[in-house]
Amino acid sequence: MQEKVIIFDTTLRDGEQSPGASLNVFEKLEIARQLSRLNVDVIEAGFPVSSPAQFEAVQRIADESDKIIAGLCRAKEIDIEKAYQALRNAKAPRIHTFASTSDIHIQGKFADSKYGLSLAEKRKTILKMSFDAVAYARTFTNDVEFSAEDAGRTDIGYLAEIIETAINAGATTVNIPDTTGFTHPLEYGNMISELKRRVSNISKAVISVHCHNDLGLAVANSLFALQSGARQVECTINGIGERAGNASLEEIVMALKIRSDLTNLYTDIHIPEIYNTSRMVSGFTGIVVQPNKAIVGENAFAHESGIHQDGMLKNKQTYEIISPESVGVSKTKIVLGRHSGRHGLKNRLTELGYKPSEVELNQLYDAFVNLADKKKEVFDDDLRVLMGDEIYKKQEMYELKYLQFNSGTDTIPTATVSIKFEGQTMTDTSTGDGPVDACFNAIERVLGIKLTVESYNVRSVTSGRQAMGEAILRIRQGEVSFTGRGVSTDIIEASAKAYLQAINDLKVYEKSVLIMDENNRFYIGDKERTI
Ligand code: KIV
Ligand code: ZN
Predict the structure, then answer these.
(1) Among residues 500, 467, 471, 468, which one has the least CA distance to residue 485?
(2) Are residues 440 and 355 in the same domain?
(3) Which helix (H) or strand (E) holds 416?
(4) Which residues pair with 144 in a beta bridge?
(5) 382 and 465: one domain?
(6) What number does the ligand 1 atom closest to the CA of 14 have?
(7) Is residue 296 in a domain?
(8) 99 Cα to the center of ligand 1, angstroms
(9) Is the C or the N end of the chain the one with fewer CB within 10 Å?
């Protein structure tokens, strides 16, 4: 008898914690819809208490999704209440609460004497906090997950005690994260087996695993844990996440599928949607998938050497253990041209996983015709880019209306930009070290700001001479950084769009961040808020 593995996708929570990745609410909604088509079991939509934008994203996903929607919260009442408020309309809400359990975490994060003086006292406090948090969460929903943060480096005796306590308090899933990616596969698998031996009530909860990739072992560790009895795996699309990332969903799913003879485990993932999901997440986050990445990398199904090509022509199975079509990689990438109609565009977008509304479709069609005029052939990736632009526009404050630049071997690079803001269009001109610098300077002059660009990259996202160029950059303001992404057949325009996108995100953030004044009143922008 094969047993099912629950796929808990945390792309929108841990994945979004990847350096430089920030998704707006519309992009998150679009990804959540795609995750539903991929048929994951649980979508962790965010960390509601952490910001109003996170709260809104979790709420909007919960409002429309049929899936189990999880909201993360610390073991604190305020976090749990916020998580529930965001999840309230979900068909299947899950509160996911966590507390640190390793000595390193306890001594660092719970150093304050209010948690106890000795390590033993602090451990007791955390035990109680965890019990109370799970019990409190259970007053809102029957589906509560408890995570022992940094379980991978936690003393096994204490880990068993806290897991037993969480289950006694009502946890229905207990997660054993390897938060720092420290463990080795055999060790991690043994940890799961040991918990099954030591925790007397373990059969009342599903054991979950959540592995980070600091040693490149996240997928291997997850697989060992599943072999040892875990039945939920937490993972992300393209393996994005904190630092070196999380275990990659597509690798785990395909490893289980291709070698089901070894594991006797299965998932309900709709495998042909894997590639679409990967492209969407890469496009929206701006995190490029490495070409040799398993399953979804550009070279995953490319055969370079003559011997391999010859073998493939004779029998595909000589060098191919997965067929590209099975994960949604299509060979024919040319889809539409300038004579294609609205209907054809809509059909292809639907096949790529998007569901544009009629209004969006009309706007997209105009953008599509524009692009088809510049390029003879419009590829799937071009459509993904257009769709990304359309979704982004929903929260745009400053809109690039016009751009002209002049540069050459004997010319001082000069750029003129016009930006629309609240119905008014403002224009200014500037010079710079190159055309990109001149554009950025002109944008700054229009907006009256000065920013530091931390990183800047340009690459082509589609193929051929008329490829679309993508600019990705990061700006920083104090503690927070914002990523901007712009795409165009003209890389200077792509750069200007990327810069403006990052500035837009900065402005949205400034408007949504909670500020406390000297009278302990809270404000978001200039509006007072009660919390
Ligand atoms: O890595 C980790 O420990 C986490 C928990 C919050 C589940 O992301
Ligand atoms: Zn994590």
Answers:
(1) 471
(2) no
(3) strand 411-421
(4) 95
(5) no
(6) 8
(7) no
(8) 9
(9) N
The average pLDDT across 93-105 equals 98
The answer to the question of residue 525 being in a domain is: no
Mean pLDDT of the chain: 90
Region at 39 (left for phi over 0; alpha for psi -120 to 50; beta for the rest): left
For residue 280, tell me if it sits in a domain. yes
Per-residue pLDDT at 514? 56
* Among 368, 391, 414, residue at a domain's last position: 391
The H helix count followed by the E strand count for the chain is 17, 21
Q: In which residue are the tokens 């495998």 written?
A: 271
In the predicted structure, residue 71 carries a pLDDT above the cut 50: yes
Nearest Cα residue to atom 2 of ligand 1: 179
- Are residues 405 and 281 part of one domain? no
Domain of 137, in residue numbers? 3-285
96 pocket-lining for ligand 1 (C-beta < 6 Å): no
- Is 473 inside a domain boundary? yes
Closest atom of ligand 1 relative to the 246 alpha carbon: 1
Q: 531 falls in which pLDDT band (50, 70, 90)? A: very low
CA pseudo-torsion sign 502, 508, 511, 512:
negative
| Residues β-bridged to residue 150 | none
CATH of residue 463 = 3.30.160.270
The CATH code of the domain that includes 255 is 3.20.20.70
Judge if 274 and 352 occupy the same domain. no
- Which residue among 72, 207, 221 has the greatest number of ligand 1 atoms within 8 angstroms of its CB, and so is best to mutate? 72
102 lines ligand 1 (CB under 6 A): no
- Assess whether the C-beta atom of 489 lies below 6 angstroms from ligand 1: no
pLDDT tens figures, 292-335 = 999 999 888 877 667 777 777 777 788 789 999 999 987 655 56
Report residue 74 CA to chain centroid gap: 20
Distance in angstroms (rounded) separating the CA atoms of residues 276 and 5: 22
Judge if the beta carbon of residue 84 lies within 6 A of ligand 1.
no
Ligand 1 centroid – CA 179 distance (Å): 6
Residue 483 in tokens? 């990523």
Q: What is the pLDDT of residues 471-501, one digit of tens each?
A: 988 888 777 778 888 888 899 999 999 999 8
391, 415, 431: which is the final residue of a domain?
A: 391
Q: Does residue 518 register a pLDDT over 90?
A: no
pLDDT at 509 over 80: no
User: How many domains does the chain contain in total?
Assistant: 4
